[in-house]
Amino acid sequence: MTANVAVRQMELAEARLIIDYFHSATPEHLELLGVDPTRLPPPARWMEGYAKELRQPIRSRESLLVAWEVDGKTVGFSTADTITFGKEARMHLHILSPADRGAGTGARCVRETARLYFDVLELDRLFCEPNAFNTAPNRTLQRAGFSYVKTHMTVPGRLNYRQAVTRWVLERGAVP
Questions:
Q1: CA pair distance 27, 18, nearest whole angstrom
Q2: Which residue ranges form the domains of the chain, and what is each CATH number?
Q3: Would the pTM count as exceeding 0.90?
Q4: What percent of the chain shows pLDDT beyond 70?
Q5: Which burial class, exposed, middle or buried, applies to 132 when counting CB atoms under 10 A from its CB (0-12, 13-18, 19+)?
Q6: CA quadruple 174, 74, 128, 140: dihedral positive or negative?
């Protein structure tokens, strides 16, 4: 039986899911993600930032938050940042529970999320740069139709330290 997958923009109250995901992650999981735990904002400040962001019109936002549901259960999320409205953005992807990882729904969620980002942000291209040593998101992006660009050293986001990342891209017309 095929799982029912839904992706949608998050409501403010759901942003707590993102904050809790990072603040409750093990040091090993944060390392796999390339996240520096000293860069995690305190939960209340992080939530205030999301509240401010979600009050902005879409064209003015610095980020967009997306929830992933499988058979009505929230299993993961994606965020888009580094947004140049009408041109490009960078996405991040996370499955909440280790029990839900490897179930094969990640690529479906990523494809649907890419469609949402292309439509809502009017993008031409979408990038993603997971840690090069984190196999799961790299495989998921490939299965979702993203094309490999390069592997390089960078600080991929405000929560990250300098690391090797694999850059993937999806062009507007290439969404499977």
A1: 16
A2: 5-127 (3.40.630.30)
A3: yes
A4: 98
A5: middle
A6: negative
